[in-house]
């Protein structure tokens, strides 16, 4: 049951604090839900982006050529993305049918924290173990988002979703930034913390991410209610859970195509998120190519984390005034500017300017995409629909970098490739313009 179906739930356990209300954090279940962004973000900042890739290259893949190292790491990432995209809708169907969203989230958090903690035991040359743990942990964190995101329409009204979603991203930036800063301190000055060397600091970083992720998932599991099962899979007891889920996924896909505006939103998100993910994934490579050293890049990434905190909150408030769709258009305009400036970039200070611009719009654009989609889907099938949302999000990590690589191959330089990313922002904006949000909301009212 949503808040709109149960208005009395809106005041239950809430704090009548205007500031918290503006942030969308005025009820305990909203704060508990947003805390999961705080819980998992260190995995994004430390494991996916800043620390583990370097550890994989310098320690786990010792003895391999740079090309072999890059290929093995890329394959681990690609396989994880593909598996998550394949299983997402089916797990979403099972979660909706049997009202086990929180249990499945807890299971994947357990899997993810365990594999992250086991990274402590990766030794020199243990690239198969490192790749396997990285692959499984990536599947776990990505799959957990399906159940996490699907809870949003059950705890927040349509008027609250934008603020709640952007606040989650803001809190996530803070958590990811705090843990990454601490991790970098351990790595850069290990003896100051009683550690023997930088490798010990890296291993402690992996353990800290696992513990942080596990501990701060607890508020969601305790304070966010499990939505009841509102759909009955046809003959689920007779045909089995997997077959019933397969049938339900097929039915939901056809149903999704019938929700024209939600489906258009997915297409728009696939396109412009392709551009966003390309900038995120290729920034370090492009920065190195034009001479930005590693320390400057790490500092710039920290800048993204901490600029993202206030800007994500502000985007939620901005969306409350102009609408989520208009706010996303503004973010896409900034991304076009980022691509143009990136094309002309020649020095480290410009890299920091671009990092600040990315931090200003990255969290807000993705958070508002999540909440806008949530407002146009049937709440009772939220896990299934977010399973498809996950599929489109994962494909956004494939096409953009491939287009970037093709542009580099054809031109012989990354500069035109950076400029070519504008195509995704423009195409996504064109499709987004065709989304009628009010009509989409009426369809599932």
Q: In brief, what are we looking at here?
A:
The protein is an all-alpha fold and 445 residues long. The protein has helices at residues 18-23, 28-50, 52-60, 66-98, 101-118, 127-155, 158-188, 198-215, 218-223, 236-239, 241-258, 260-289, 294-322, 324-344, 348-374, 382-411, 414-420, 422-433, 437-443.
Describe what this molecule looks like in 3D.
The protein has 19 helices and no strands. It is an all-alpha fold and 445 residues long. The chain is globular. It starts with 17 loop residues before the first helix and ends with a helix. Mean pLDDT is 83; it is low at 1-13 and 233-239.
Q: Identify the CATH architecture.
A: Up-down Bundle
What is the H-and-E element order? HHHHHHHHHHHHHHHHHHH
- Segments where pLDDT lies below 50 for 5+ residues? 1-13, 233-239
Q: Compute the average pLDDT.
A: 83
Principal-axes geometry comes out as: globular
Radius of gyration: 21 Å
**Number of DSSP strand runs:** 0
CATH class: Mainly Alpha
**Estimated helix fraction:** over 70%
**Biggest sheet architecture:** none
- Number of separate domains: 1
CATH-assigned fold name: Growth Hormone, Chain: A
How far do the termini sit from each other? Answer: 12 Å
Number of helices: 19
Sheet/helix structural class? mainly alpha
DSSP strand content:
under 5%
Please, what is the CATH homologous superfamily?
Answer: MFS general substrate transporter like domains
